[in-house]
Write a structure and sequence with these properties.
The complex is a heterodimer of chains A (about 280) and B (about 140).
Chain A lengths: L2 H23 L4 H11 L4 H25 L5 H21 L5 H20 L14 H5 L4 E5 L4 E5 L4 H18 L4 H11 L4 H26 L4 H22 L4 H24 L3
Antiparallel strand pairs in A: 1-2
Helix pairs in contact in A: 1-2, 1-10, 2-3, 3-9, 3-10, 4-7, 4-9, 5-11, 7-8, 8-9
Chain B lengths: L17 H34 L10 H5 L10 H9 L3 H29 L3 H18 L6
Helix pairs in contact in B: 1-4, 3-4, 4-5
The chains are: A mainly alpha (about 280), B mainly alpha (about 140).
Amino acid sequence: MTDIEFFVFVLLVVSFTAGLLGSLIGLGGGILIVPLLTLVFRLDIHLAVGASIVSIIATSSGAAAAYVRDHLTNVRAGIFLELATSTGAVLGALLIPFLPGRALYFLFAAFLLLSLLPMLRRLGEEIPSGVEPDWLARRLHLGGAYPDRVLGRVVAYEVTRVPVGFAMMFVAGMASALLGLGAGALKVLAMDWGMRMPMKVSTATSNFMIGVTAAASAGIYFWRGDVVPEIATPVMLGVLTGSVVGAQLLLRLTNRRVRQLFIPILLVIAVQMLLRGIGVW
Amino acid sequence: MRERTAGVETQTRPTLSPAQERIDLLISRVLRSGVLLAAVIGLIGLILFFVREPLPGEPQTLPELLHLRPETLTTSPASLVSGALAGQPEDVMRVGLLILILTPTARVALTLILFLLERDLIFVAIAAVILLILLGGLVGLVGG
C-alpha cells in the first residue's frame, strides 16, 4: 500500500467517525470535515470546502428523503426559499477564489460559534400559536399541515415574516458555499424563529433545502477542480455511512445530553480555526 | 386543510391527501436512489483506486496531494467521459460525485414537472429559476 492509498483509507475511517458524531450532535458531518482536513491534514481550505460540500449533499439528501416520506417537509416553502439559498451559494462560489484562506478560517470560527448558540437555548417554539400569515405567505400558499406522531394528529400551521426568512436564507446559502457546510442551524433559525414555523417542519425543510444549496456551489467547484476525487470520495462515503449509523444510535440516546457533551469539543475546534486565521497555529 | 389559526385542527389519525402522499413518495425515491447510485459508483472508483496506478496528471504521492493548490485539478466533460469509460479510478470517482451533485438538481426538475401538472404557474417559474441557477454552475457557465 502506497502512502497515498493509506491516506485515503485513513480518510474513510475518520470521515465515518465525523459523520457519526455529526449526526449525534445534530449539526451534520460538514462542520467537522473542514476542520479535520485543514487542521489535521493541512489541506488548503478551498479544497477542504470542495470535498465537504459534496459530502453534505449525500447526508442531507438521505435525511431529506426520510422526512419527505413522513410528510414533515413544507415543499412549497422550501422551494421558494431555495431561490435565496441558491443565489447566495452562487455568489459565495464566485467570491471564494478572491478570499484568502485566513479570512475563511475566521468566518468558519465565527459561524461555528453562532451555530452553538441555539444548542444552549431553544429559540423557536415547538408549535407556534396565533400566527397571522403575511401577504407573501398568503399569495404563495406557504402554510401547511404535517402529521405529528407524538400528538397523534395532523397539525395545520401558518407562515409569516417571509422577507425576514428569505434574507436569512440568502446568508445561509453564502455561508454554505464559502465554508462547505449545510448551514442547517441558520436555516432552521430562519424558519422557526424568523417565519414562525413548527420546529419539526423547520428541521425537515432545512434538510430538504441543504442539498439544493450545496449543489449550487458544488457544480461550480467541480469543474473548477476544487472537488478532488481522491479526497472527496472517501469523505463522502465515510460521512454517509457514519451518519446512517449515527441516526440508528440516536434512537437509543437522549438527544439533549449528547448535544451538550459535544459543545466543549466544538469550542476547541472554533478556537483552533480562529488561531489559524490569525496565523498562530 | 389550511386554516388561519395554526395548531387547532383535531383529528384522531394523521391523514393527508392521496396526491400529496404520492408526490412526497416520488421525491423521496429520487433523492434516495441518486445518493445510492453515487455511493456505489464512488465505491467502485475507490476500489479501482486501490487496484490501479494513479493517472499521469493526478497527484502521485501524498505530499503532492496534500499540497495541491485550488483550481489546478480542473477537468472537462470530454476527458471525464473517456477516462471513466477506460476505468480510470479518478474519473470513475468524479462520475460518482457528479451524480451526487445532479441528485438535488433532478429533484428540482421533478418538482417543476409536478407544479406544471398542478398548473401552479408562480411555482413553475420559481422552480425554473432554481433549475437554471443549478444548471448554470453544472455546465460551467458560471464561475468556471
